[in-house]
Input
Amino acid sequence: MSRDQDRNFDHFHQRFKQNIYASLKGRLRLEILWQDIQQHIPPLTTGMPLRILDAGSGMGNFSQRLHERGHQLLLCDISGKQLEAARQNLSMAQDSGSIRFIQQPFQQLADDSDEQFDLVLSHAVLEWLTEPQQGIGALQQLIRPGGWLSLLFFNRHSLIYRHLLNGNFKRVRSGDLAGEGKYLTPDNPLIPEQVYDWLDDSGLQIVACSGVRTFTDFMDRGMRDKLPFEALLEMELRYRAQEPFRSLARYIHVICHKP
Ligand SMILES: C[S@@+](CC[C@H](N)C(=O)[O-])C[C@H]1O[C@@H](n2cnc3c(N)ncnc32)[C@H](O)[C@@H]1O
Output
């Protein structure tokens, strides 16, 4: 198994665009991540432009906001289709920061270049890697000393809980929770406690941790559709860092500092 087998989203591009960013899921994700980084990464509030790497950038939805605030971005993805969409999204955005695009595994960037960044983003990528622990090692290498990591990953606990609620006990018993390559369930859903250990082993310090979609995915759909977005967001923000809600969230967002 190697990085060549990490999931390339050329095949998922259309589904990803539709199911995530054209829906409540993507809106909540963007807002929660945004609040987290503003709250926990002090250099983002100084107004100084930062060097930021988006490792597994997809269509650049999150980077777009940072670009609009004058930061310098490098978007890295293995999918040509996702990067093409990112180019289009960012060319339509208000152009204030500088921007580069690169089509290759971010692990290769870590191997081949000495470039390091003030902030590395890796959102919903780790669970698509064949070797996620090595992925964390590569991310760590790409952060300058004193820099920051914003890491979002798919939470295996939440998937088990979802199967339990749906009565899919056979699936739970089998322990095989990997997606089947057709839908957006990841190849490698991650156990948060294990990811925290990997971060610790790599020398990164966890500064904050929150859940993204702690309850909306489990809600009755009729009720969810009736409620205004602002009300759902308010409650997601309120419970995101609080146990036991955080540990059941669909994604876990960890902010780390490199000493
Ligand atoms: C679920 S999407 C997330 C995209 C974006 N970060 C977001 O949050 O919208 C995962 C992305 O990671 C990319 N990817 C997977 N393995 C990668 C790797 N080793 N290096 C760079 N990109 C990778 C895929 O092509 C895909 O675009």
About this structure: The first helix runs from residue 13 to 21. The first strand starts at residue 51 and ends at 55. The pocket of S-adenosylmethionine is lined by residues 3, 6-9, 56-58, 61-62, 76-79, 82, 105-107, 123-125, 128-129 (CB under 6 Å).
